[in-house]
Design goal:
CATH superfamily: MetI-like
Strand content: under 5%
Number of domains: 1
Number of strands: 0
CATH topology: MetI-like fold
Number of helices: 11
Largest sheet: none
Helix content: over 70%
Structural class: mainly alpha
Radius of gyration: 22 Å
CATH class: Mainly Alpha
Order of helices and strands: HHHHHHHHHHH
CATH architecture: Orthogonal Bundle
Distance between the termini: 26 Å
Shape: globular
């Protein structure tokens, strides 16, 4: 650590806890506590029950959770593919053209996601590209919204990558495709796994564009959480939020294991 004094380290740890608990941990703990509550009229819930979890398990919540996971996985894989391809191609472009490509990928981040949803709704509501009312338009919207993060992550990793590895392989007679598959991509694997984890987490929590696009038979869990809490069922909505957090964390833990192994290699 940069701080070598034991007293100073303890003070920094205490300051971190004072900032972390109220800002980050406490809201999550409140959601978990609300998922077990029968009522909440004071500082703490006044009753504990598993009824909300039983109702969620027997309703459409599992289908909504599965829909969110499938949407996030498809969007993450598509975003990682497009972002990696664009980042590798941008390396060979002129600086002005590269800036234009950067702006193109960062544009969905610069505008509200509801604008992205509306633009896709208008663009794909008529033949020959009729996607309105299908799961594909939801996956497409999530892909558009998260591709910028994959692109930026891979671009930053390429900037730190030592070109001597690829040059050595090329000097030994390796073809460009072989260098890409056997040298460049394995070296980028930690950044690729981090990018897909970030894209997955962002897609799991996306709501604004999804509300405008989702068909009735493809309702992601954030939409169901919004609809549930909008009806006043806050405790039932807390259960769905806990399920959403748990599923996201489980997938991120799996991705972190892949990243750890890739970093070790």
């Amino acid at each position: 650590m940069l701080v070598h004094s034991r007293t100073a380290r303890r003070a920094l740890h205490a300051l971190f806890l004072l900032l972390f608990l109220p800002v980050f941990a406490l809201p999550l703990l409140v959601i978990v506590a609300a998922s077990f509550a029968t009522s909440w009229s004071g500082a703490l819930p006044s009753g504990l029950t598993l009824t909300h979890y039983q109702d969620a398990a027997s309703g459409d919540s599992l289908n909504a959770l599965l829909t969110s996971v499938l949407t996030a996985l498809a969007a993450s894989v598509a975003a990682l593919t497009l972002g990696t391809w664009a980042a590798l191609a941008a390396e060979r472009l002129a600086r002005r053209t590269r800036r234009l490509l950067d702006g193109l990928f960062l544009l969905p981040m610069a505008v509200p996601s509801v604008v992205v949803g509306l633009s896709l709704l208008v663009a794909f509501s008529r033949p020959p590209f009729l996607l309105n009312g299908t799961p594909q338009i939801v996956i497409l919207a999530h892909t558009v919204l998260v591709t910028a993060f994959a692109y930026q992550s891979v671009t930053a990793a390429l900037a730190r990558l030592d070109p001597a590895y690829a040059q050595s392989a090329a000097g030994l007679g390796a073809r460009p495709g072989y260098v890409l598959r056997r040298v460049t991509l394995p070296l980028l694997l930690p950044s690729l796994s981090a990018a897909v984890g970030l894209c997955f987490a962002l897609s799991m929590g996306e709501l604004s564009a999804t509300v405008m696009l989702y068909p009735p038979d493809w309702m992601p869990l954030p939409v169901q959480i919004f609809a549930t809490t909008d009806r006043g069922a806050l405790f039932a909505g807390a259960v769905l939020a806990v399920a959403l957090m748990a599923a996201t964390l489980l997938v991120l833990l799996g991705v972190s294991r892949i990243r750890t192994k890739a970093t070790y290699r």
